[in-house]
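Troubleshooting log. The previous run stalled partway through. Resubmitting the same two chains, unchanged.
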Amino acid sequence: MSINNQSNFNCLISCVPTLITLNGAEMLFGRATLRLRSVHTLFVRWNGTLVVASHNNERLLPITLNTIAAAKMIGGDVTCLVLGKGCAKVAEEVAKVGGLTRVLVADDAAFHGFLPEQVAPAIVAAQNQFKFTHILAGADAFGKSVAPRVGALLNIQPVSDVIAIKSADTFVRPIYAGNAILTVKSLESIKILTIRPTSFEAVATSGGDAKVEKAPVVKAESGLSQFVEQKLTKSDRPELAGAKTVISGGRGMKNGDNFKLLYELADKLGAAVGASRAAVDAGFVPNDLQIGQTGKIVAPELYIAVGISGAIQHLAGMKDSKTIVAINKDPDAPIFQVADLGLVEDLFKAVPEMTKLIK
Amino acid sequence: MSLRVLVGVKRVVDYAVKVRVRPDHKWVVTDGVKHSMNPFDEIAVEEAVRLKEKKIVSEIVAVSCGPPQSQETLRTALAMGADKAIHVEVPAKDAELLSPIHVAGIIAKIAKDEKIDLVILGKQAIDDDSNQTGQMVAGLLNWPQATFASEIVQADGGLKVTREIDGGLEVIQVKLPAVITTDLRLNQPRYATLPNIMKAKKKPIDKKSPADLGVDTKPRLEVVSVDEPPVRQAGAKVANVEELVQKLKEAGRI
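Second attempt completed without errors. Output:
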């Protein structure tokens, strides 16, 4: 690793006092050894973090702001990499985000559709040039697809779905559908992490003035894969992952038409609508509304579970919500064990009544 | 097409079991707990079998890395329709520290040795919830990847795969050889029938070690601790909708 620019060097200097304290024990060794060890430690301990932005070429996705927050907890410089086709506007948006040192932009037709075959080698190229100690991406469909591929290319084992950062090498993540919390120390030279957005407060979208630079150009093998089309679920309601209030329906909704009861209530509350796996499997609503271990993870201020029993897999996706309300006619449904407020009643009576009361 | 398919299957604690943290806080209790095939892997096997039934696939090889009991999982895959199996045996105590990068290295090597055209894996194992192995296999082999697949069709000399993404669905076209990881909506796995379970007993299971495949299983991560998640305070039941709405208003939630 070489000191290849001024900002790296400044960072090294600013790290010195901490490092000496950290390595206090080494005072026992001879002066020369101390100096050598410290210099070595300096390089190892310098934290430069790369955040790979999630965006849609139009705007930055909120998950990136949570991921930057996680990066800032690691300490050191934070660089954000924006890869896309026609993503100049997003790069400008990112430059204004607080706390970034640098924004790297790679605007190229090759990144159309954000295919991991193209994106991963570009991240590796940025890594090879700047020698980051950490590479972070949000734990969304994009980050989950790309981060492990980057790991394979760099021969690094990534850590998925991080919910807390204990130190530069020790991270916390849920396992077994959130029924156990694993604290894990990465023994790798580069830490590759995906970040669970609901566990980190988003950074401000203004106040920053980062330098925008071109990312290193890389020629990945083309033709391995091709983007064909996207079929996105259109909705005027807030996005599930970032909504302050979420109303979810389960098998108890009986059919897709009945979901309109939830939509009416959701519109009153400005809420997003989600679903359990049972409701998705039965075809009541599209898959991207599924909340749970293998669907979306939400942690809104208010979560209203309607006609949902509360299987382990569903709880994994919503049990960090601030207030949980359950409406279910079965008083023994497991959802009542996590609900702050439970109402044992037929949802077909309770939901319209609630909608009326909130008018 | 006459593709050779490799499916990865993992033996995990059954999805319906509520796991408990081990007293030494180094993992969860797995001894004496019901295990079964990872649900996403059942979907992977089912898809491979369906592709064989459509004459797109000629042979299905199932692979599992883990302790001797992983052979039961491989037998299940054989009973569902896999043709042969490879068990990469890892002693139980090392299996806990086996990371996706190790498994990906093993699968990538087998894919090359067996002249595989398509690797199908589950999108994630429901024990460590990593969601990494398929992407890593694709990265190691420099093959295209189609993650979170909900539909696979033959098209233009390759495969057209519908993927489940955050805002809906996405369709991509991949060249072969490729790696696909399965989402829940891809199919409904079949139950193995008794005659097929009997037949599966005669199908071959090759035994190998990671070292045979040139994969170093030195740990890349160290378990500091495993803890119970914070327990939520038990809540209260309300008598009716008025009370519910009133309580939510008082709490400032609505």
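Takeaways: The radius of gyration of chain B is 21 Å. The mean pLDDT of chain B is 96.
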